[in-house]
Automatic annotation (TrEMBL):
Biased composition (Basic and acidic residues): 113-127
Matching CDD domains: dRRM_Rrp7p (cd12293), RRP7_Rrp7p (cd12950)
Name by which UniProt lists this protein: Ribosomal RNA-processing protein 7-domain-containing protein
Stretches assigned to the Rrp7 RRM-like N-terminal domain: 10-177
Source organism of this protein record: Schizothecium vesticola
GO cellular component annotations of the record: CURI complex; UTP-C complex
Length: 320
């Protein structure tokens, strides 16, 4: 079997020895590609993170922890985020109506207290349907981001990968409790499929509890949106416009309120215009010149009118 080169582009290639299985009694190598994590939007942890691609389909956090402990020792591996977990975090549980989502995004609280966020996360977790798998299987060629203790640990992992190619001592892909932690990954194969078949039919009480939690959370977010809509109703914005809301029990804005909002808008526009008039000295000089020219023009016009009137009237001879 041909072995991949130590690096391909910016990736370091880590060969992993897959143990012999009863279904496939032959040892094979799986190639894991590792590089520095460089996302499009940088984060504070990029310097101590590694980007992995082509992770094994049965990967778990425990197995990657064992693998990195084999490379650089215990205590360097902190956590891992798989591709499907990142996508799930970007698209959380949709437990609110569309109009409520728009109102909460535009006028909701900018910051929440930690206890409120924890409470909301607990409510959303309770609203999720029970899982039907004991452990997930990754897509072929999927990715993951490993967070290490510090930047030095990330350097040591890359150096250890280069050393693996020199010594030809490839780390093994452990599937059980090889770390001595007492935790073992749930088995795959027939046991995994049987468990899935059993979990696909959850207990009625557990399913009802999940549905009730979802309905409660949905109604709670609708109530929050209704309170925000009531608060912003008839409140003119900075441009003087009043938000018109349709439906519900709240009546539309009265004519007096609309006229008052319009008056405030006109006053703000006039103040803004006055503030910009005669702002510069040259504007004052130009305005005075225009006024003098207008006075001279008016004086000449008046003198011309008087001359015309005298010519029409002729000489006045008083009666004796």
């Amino acid at each position: 079997m041909a072995v991949c080169p130590p690096t391909i582009g910016e990736f370091s290639v880590l060969p992993i020895a897959i143990p012999v299985l009863p279904s496939f009694p032959r040892s094979v190598l799986h190639y894991l590609y590792v590089r520095r994590n460089a996302p499009k939007i940088p984060t504070v942890n990029d310097s101590r993170s590694l980007f992995l691609t082509n992770v094994p389909v049965d990967s778990t956090e425990l197995q990657l922890r064992i693998l990195f402990s084999t490379l650089v020792g215990v205590g360097r591996f902190e956590s891992v985020t798989f591709e499907d977990e990142r996508k799930e975090a970007q698209h959380p549980l949709d437990s609110q109506p569309a109009h409520a989502a728009r109102l909460l995004a535009a006028h909701g609280k900018k910051r929440k207290r930690e206890n409120e966020e924890a409470e909301r996360a607990k409510e959303e977790e309770a609203a999720r349907l029970p899982s039907t798998w004991t452990r997930p299987l990754r897509k072929s060629g999927s990715t993951a981001v490993v967070l290490l203790a510090d930047e030095k640990s990330a350097d040591q992992v890359l150096k250890a990968i280069a050393k693996v190619h020199r010594t030809k001592k490839y780390p093994k892909w452990e599937g059980g409790d090889a770390s001595g932690t007492g935790r073992a990954a749930p088995p795959l194969g027939l046991t995994w499929l049987k468990a899935h078949n059993r979990m696909s039919y959850p207990d009625r009480s557990a399913l009802q509890a999940s549905v009730d939690a979802f309905s409660t959370l949905f109604a709670k977010k609708e109530q929050e949106a209704a309170e925000i809509a009531k608060r912003i109703r008839n409140e003119p914005d900075e441009d003087g416009f009043v938000t018109v809301t349709r439906g519900g029990r709240n009546a539309p804005a009265s004519r007096n309120e609309a006229e008052e909002a319009k008056r405030k808008m006109i006053e703000r526009a006039e103040k803004k215009k006055e503030g910009m008039t005669n702002f510069y000295r040259f504007q004052l000089r130009e305005r005075k010149k225009e006024e003098q020219a207008e006075l001279a023009k008016q004086f000449e016009e008046d003198r011309r009118k008087i001359s015309v009137m005298r010519e029409k009237r002729g000489k006045f001879v008083p009666e004796s």
